[in-house]
Write a structure and sequence with these properties.
By secondary structure, the protein is α/β, with parallel strands linked by helices. It is 43% helix and 15% strand. It is built from 25 helices and 21 strands. The strands form six sheets. A six-stranded mixed sheet has the order 2-3-1-4-5-6, with helices on both faces. A six-stranded mixed sheet has the order 17-18-16-19-20-21, with helices on both faces. Strand 7 and strand 8 form a beta hairpin. Helix 9 crosses helix 10 and helix 14 crosses helix 15.
C-alpha cells in the first residue's frame, strides 16, 4: 500500500475547485475564495485510510501549462471538477481534460480519475444521466460524486473516494466491459484459496473460512453470517457451494460481487494480507524478509518449519503412500509462479522404487535449499503461506541461524543438525557413485540416470548416537589449480580415489597437502571401486603410508557395485567426524603408534583381564544359576560392541 496519496483537482475556471478544498479544510464555505489554494497535507490520523493525503489545486490564471503537466505526472489520482449547472464545463471533461491527462500519462500506468459535479445546491436535477455514458466510455474513471462546496454536501466523501481510488484501485482487479475479474486477479485469488484450503479438498469448510476471515480481518464470522454468505453464493452460482463449503468458483464470485458493489477494499485487504502489491505481484518485503547471517554461521529450518512442511506434504500426498508422485508435486507447486524443483532433485534426495520423492527426501530437499540459499527458501515458504498459516510476522521465523563454528570447536559440542561434506577427487574416481550410494542407489541404478539429470549434491539423514542429523554431500568439480572458498568451507572432507586407476590418488594427495594439511577440517580418504583389483598408485607414498604419515584414517574401502543398496556406515562415520571435529586427531588405523590406537589396545587388554577374571570365578564356583549367567553374557555383548 502507498505511504501517501496525492490528489490533484483540475477543471474549468469558476467550477469551484478551490472552494471544495477550502470547505474541506475549514468545514465551512469561505466568504472569500482565492484564485488558487496552496497545497495542503492532511495528516494520516485524521484520514479514514490512515495515510497522509496531499491535496493540490490547479489554477489556469496562475499556473502555466508546463506546471500543469508536472502536477499531472506527480498525481496519484485526479479529480476533474465540473459545475452541474454549466453544460460547457461538462463537455470539457471529454473534449479537453481526459485527452490531456491521457496524453501526459503512461498508457500502462494511467492514474485513476474521479468526476466531481460541484454546485449541486444550485440545481434540482442530477447530472448523472449525462455522466454515465462518459464513465462507460473511459475505464480510468473510478466514480462520479456530486457535491456542494457551499452546503458541504459530500465534501469529505469526495476526498475519501479519491483516497480509495489510489489505495484500493479497481483497475487491476476488474474489467467493467466484460463484468468479470481480470486474469491477474483470478490468479492471485486462486493462490490465496489454495493456501487457505488446509486439507486440499478443493472446498473451504467453516473452519477454513473462519481461519481465513480471522487472518484477513482479525475476527471470525458468526455461524449465521457464514450461512448467509453461502446462501448468497448458492442463489447466484450452482456449483459455488459443495458439501456445505465454498468452492473456488464461489470464492471468486464473492470477490466479483464485492467489487461490483463498490467494496473492492475488501478484496484489496485480502490480497495485501497475502503479500500482494498494487500490481498484484508478491512484494519483495513479503518474499524476502530481512535475516541476518553472521560469517561462519549456517541456516537451518526450525521445528515449526518442519511441522509446517510436514502438513504441506500430508495435504498433497493424496494416496497416503509417503511419497509425492509427479502429479502431486505439480499440485503442491501450483501456488508458485514457476516450478522450483528440476529433474535433478530425484538424484539429490531419496526416492522410492518408482522414482517418486519420499517424505524423507522431501524434507531433505527443503533442508538443502535452506542451507545453500536461505533467501530462496524464504521465497518458497512465502509462496506456501507459512507466515500467514502460522501467524508469524514473516518467513524468517522459520529459520534458525547456527552459532559460529569456532564456538562449537571451543565448547567441543554443536547444536547444528546439518553438516556439509565436500567430495574431492580426480575425474572418474567415483565421486558421483559415492553421492548416489548415499541415497541407496547401487551402480546398476546409477547407470539409468540421464546425464542432464545428474546432481552435484546428495542429502539424507544419518543417526549419530541416536540423534537424527542431515549429511549434505557436495561433489566438487576437479580443478586442482583453484579451489574456491565454497569448495573449502565444509565440516568434513572426502578425498576419493579409484583403486583401479594408478594416477587417481595423486590428485587427493596434492589437494590435501595444499589446502587441508593445516586445516581444522576432518579429512577421510575413500578407496572407491573396492570391488575391482587394486593397482599400485603412481605416487611416492602408497595411500596407507600417506594416511599414516599425516595421521589420517586409513583409506576406507567403498563400492556401489552391489546387488542391494550400498552400505551406509561410512556416511554415519562422516557425520560423526563433522559433529566432533575437535577429535579428528584420533586415528582409526591399527598402527599401534598413535594415541587412539594405544588407548584402544590398553582398553582391550583391560577388558580381556576382566573376562579372564569372570571365567576363573565361573570355573571356581561352577555357578549355573541364571542370576549369574545373564549379566555375564550381557557383559560379553558389551565387550564385543566396544571391540
Amino acid at each position: 500500500m502507498r505511504k501517501d496519496v496525492r490528489i490533484l483537482l483540475v477543471g474549468e475556471p469558476k467550477v469551484g475547485k478551490t472552494s471544495l478544498i477550502m470547505s474541506l479544510v475549514s468545514e465551512e464555505f469561505p466568504d472569500e475564495v482565492p484564485r488558487r489554494a496552496e497545497e495542503i497535507t492532511i495528516p494520516a490520523d485524521v484520514t479514514p485510510e490512515r495515510v497522509p493525503t496531499h491535496i493540490v489545486d490547479y489554477s489556469e490564471a496562475e499556473q502555466s501549462d508546463e506546471q500543469l503537466y508536472q502536477e499531472i505526472s506527480k498525481a496519484n489520482v485526479i479529480c476533474i471538477v465540473y459545475a452541474v449547472n454549466n453544460k460547457k464545463s461538462i463537455e470539457k471533461v471529454t473534449s479537453h481534460w481526459i485527452p490531456l491527462i491521457n496524453d501526459r500519462t503512461d498508457k500502462d500506468s494511467r492514474v485513476p480519475l474521479i468526476l466531481v459535479g460541484n454546485k449541486s445546491d444550485l440545481v434540482e436535477h442530477s447530472s448523472m444521466e449525462t455522466i454515465l455514458p462518459i464513465m462507460n466510455q473511459y475505464q480510468d474513471i473510478e466514480t462520479c460524486v456530486e457535491c456542494s462546496a457551499k452546503n458541504l454536501k459530500n465534501i469529505s466523501e469526495l476526498f475519501y473516494y479519491a483516497q480509495k481510488a489510489v489505495l484500493h484501485p479497481t483497475g487491476p482487479l476488474y474489467c467493467p466491459e466484460e463484468k468479470e475479474l481480470k486474469t491477474s486477479c483470478i490468479k492471485s485469488l486462486t493462490r490465496i484459496f489454495k493456501v487457505s484450503d488446509l486439507d486440499n479438498d478443493g472446498i473451504l469448510n467453516d473452519n477454513e473460512l473462519n481461519f481465513f476471515q480471522r487472518t484477513c480481518f482479525n475476527m471470525p464470522l458468526a455461524p449465521q453470517a457464514l450461512e448467509d454468505v453461502k446462501n448468497v453464493v448458492r442463489r447466484n452460482m450452482g456449483d459455488g457451494v459443495q458439501d456445505n463449503g465454498l468452492t473456488l468458483k464461489g470464492f471468486l464470485f464473492l470477490h466479483t460481487l464485492f467489487i461490483q458493489r463498490g467494496r473492492h477494499e475488501t478484496t484489496w485487504t485480502v490480497l495485501r494480507r497475502f503479500g500482494y502489491d498494487d500490481d498484484l505481484e508478491l512484494t519483495q518485503e513479503y518474499l524476502f524478509p530481512m535475516i541476518k547471517i553472521p560469517p561462519d554461521c549456517t541456516t537451518e529450518l526450525n521445528h515449526n518449519a518442519y511441522l509446517f512442511l510436514q502438513s504441506v506434504f500430508d495435504k498433497h500426498d493424496k494416496d497416503r503412500d509417503c511419497a509425492l508422485s509427479p502429479e502431486e508435486v505439480k499440485d503442491l507447486f501450483k501456488v508458485f509462479p514457476y516450478m522450483p524443483w528440476g529433474p535433478d532433485v530425484n538424484n539429490t534426495v531419496c526416492t522410492n522404487d518408482q522414482g517418486w520423492i519420499t517424505y524423507q527426501g522431501y524434507l531433505s530437499q527443503w533442508t538443502l535449499t535452506t542451507y545453500l540459499d536461505v533467501q530462496r527458501s524464504l521465497e518458497y515458504l512465502g509462496y506456501l503461506g507459512y507466515s500467514i498459516i502460522y501467524e508469524q510476522e514473516s518467513q524468517a521465523a522459520a529459520m534458525t541461524v547456527t552459532r559460529n563454528k569456532r564456538i562449537d570447536l571451543q565448547k567441543k559440542q554443536t547444536q547444528r543438525s546439518v553438516f556439509r561434506c565436500n567430495i574431492l577427487g580426480a575425474r572418474g574416481s567415483g565421486k558421483t557413485g559415492f553421492l548416489q550410494a548415499f541415497l541407496g542407489k547401487n551402480l546398476q541404478h546409477q547407470r539409468r540416470i540421464r546425464e542432464d539429470h545428474k546432481s552435484l549434491y546428495a542429502i539424507s539423514t544419518t543417526y549419530v548416537y541416536g540423534q537424527e542429523k542431515y549429511l549434505l554431500l557436495h561433489e566438487v568439480m576437479p580443478d586442482f589449480d583453484f579451489l574456491s572458498e565454497e569448495d573449502l568451507a565444509c565440516d568434513v572432507v572426502c578425498l576419493v580415489y579409484d583403486i583401479n586407476s594408478p594416477d587417481s590418488f595423486e590428485y587427493c594427495a596434492k589437494v590435501y597437502k595444499q589446502y587441508f594439511i593445516d586445516s581444522k577440517t576432518p579429512c577421510v580418504v575413500i578407496a572407491a571401486k573396492s570391488d575391482l583389483h587394486e593397482i599400485r598408485q603412481h605416487y611416492s607414498l602408497s595411500p596407507h603410508e600417506f594416511c599414516r604419515k599425516h595421521k589420517l584414517h586409513p583409506p576406507q574401502p567403498f563400492t556401489c557395485n552391489t546387488t542391494d543398496a550400498p552400505n551406509k556406515d561410512i556416511y554415519t562415520r562422516l557425520t560423526t567426524m563433522a559433529m566432533y571435529p575437535h577429535a579428528r586427531h584420533r586415528c582409526m588405523c591399527p598402527c599401534n603408534r598413535c594415541t587412539y590406537c594405544l588407548c584402544q589396545k590398553l582398553l582391550k587388554l583391560e577388558l580381556l583381564r576382566n573376562i579372564k577374571a569372570q571365567l576363573r570365578r565361573v570355573v571356581f564356583n561352577r555357578c549355573s544359576h541364571a542370576c549369574f549367567w545373564l549379566p555375564f553374557f550381557l557383559f560379553l555383548l558389551h565387550v564385543v560392541t566396544l571391540c
